[in-house]
Every structure is written in C-alpha cells, then in structure tokens.
Amino acid sequence: MRRGSWRIRILIGLAIVAFAFIRRCSNQEENPYTGRTQNIDMTAEQEIAIGLQSAPEMAQQHGGLYPDERLQNLVDAVGQKLVKSSIANQTPYEYDFHLLADDRTVNAFALPGGQIFITYALFSQLNEAQLAGVLGHEIGHVLGRHSAERIAESTFWQTLATGASVGGDMGNLVAGIGQNTLLTNGRNDELESDELGVLFMIEAGYDPYQMIEVMKILKAAAGPNRVPEFQSTHPDPENRIEKIQEAIQKYSGR
Length: 254
Known about the structure:
Its cofactor is Zn(2+). One of its GO terms (molecular function) is metalloendopeptidase activity. One of its GO terms (cellular component) is membrane. By secondary structure, this protein is mainly alpha-helical. The protein has one domain (3-252). It has helices at residues 3-26, 44-61, 69-84, 120-123, 128-143, 146-167, 171-204, 210-222, 237-252; strands spanning 28-30, 37-39, 96-100, 108-110, 115-119. Helix 5 packs across helix 8 and helix 7 (171-204) crosses helix 9. The chain starts with a helix and ends with a helix.
C-alpha cells in the first residue's frame, strides 16, 4: 500500500472513531425513573414502536399465545396491578403482558416500550406472588430502558470497530471488547431489574421474599450444566438472591 493511501486511511479511521465518541457523549441522559445516566439514542415513542413491531414475531417463536383466556387475563391482571401501584404508571410506555404457549422453555423477557412475555413453562411453576416478581423484574427492564441502552452501546462499538478496521487491522479486536462490555452491562441490568421488581412487589402488596423462590426455580431449571457467570449475561442465582435480600431490607421500611 502506498504511504499516502495509508495515511488517508488512518485519518478516516480516526475521524470515524472521534464521531463515535462525540455521538456517545451527546446521547448521555439521566433516566428519570432510576436516576442512572445512560447512553440512549432513541425516544420512548421509538422504543414503543420497536416493541409493538417485534411482538408478533417473538410470540410466534414461542408457539404463539397460550390458548386459555383465563390464564392470559391473570397474567395481565397481575402485570397491570404492578404498573398501577408503581412509578411504572408514570412512564409513557404501553405495558402489555403475554402468556406464551411454550411449555419447554423456562423464560420471561421484555421488549422495548412495554411488551412483556412469560412462557407457560415458567408460569406453570409460579404462584401469584412469584408471577408478580417475574413480571415486576421485566417491568424494571422496560423503565430502566435497558434494551435502548444496549442498542445504543451496540451502535457505538460497531462504529468504533468500523473506524478501527479502516485505520488498520484492529476492527475484530474492538468488536470483541464491545461484546464483553455488553455482557457486563447486561448483568448490571439484571440486578437493577431485580431491585425494581422487589420494590414493585412491595408497592403492590405482594410478599417480596417470593422473588427469592423465583431465583430457586430458575436455578433448578438451569440444571447442573449452567453456563458459568463470566460467560453469561445473567448473574448467578445465588448472587441475585443476596442482592434481592438487600433490596427487601432497603424497601420494606417504606
């Protein structure tokens, strides 16, 4: 490669990297519901639109909705009770709760903007208070804007990797660092959502200690071959139980 071309590539790469950092700094904002400063580059309305657009496909991947309207109504009633009795009611998000037909995958998850799902495989193992703990945790992901934050972080690292690739041969290394950062932040998101879930349970009149029972159910479902914590986006259930106990002590006196 000619020396002049090499210098141009370096300058272009540096410009892309600088753009990534400038954009990241300009997107910093404080979450009004958690008080945490986050890197966010979309509005609440955009989060809602993404969630509504993605919801049908996500349901289809888990066999569609569970064909029992009574159980669907129970999930929705518990979820709405949590929303109405907490700060979640003050957010612009449109909370909808869905029971999925999947009877093999023990899981629950939230899309940006308020679309929340729980599989029948998990639902069938829970009492109402434990269901409230699971749904409260997922509400925490929504108002914590965790998906929007992950999208913004992913965009930042992709842009950074592009700049590193243009300027040299460091693109794959930078992308790998970005993936590790996302994993670490994901664990923090889970712990933040656990704490919010405890708070929402208490405010709705549920026994917050039932959240600990949920952790035991999740640990049993994972079995002996659970992925080590350092390779997972989720903290180990034992560590989560400790943090949940701290959250219960923190909010029980309110």
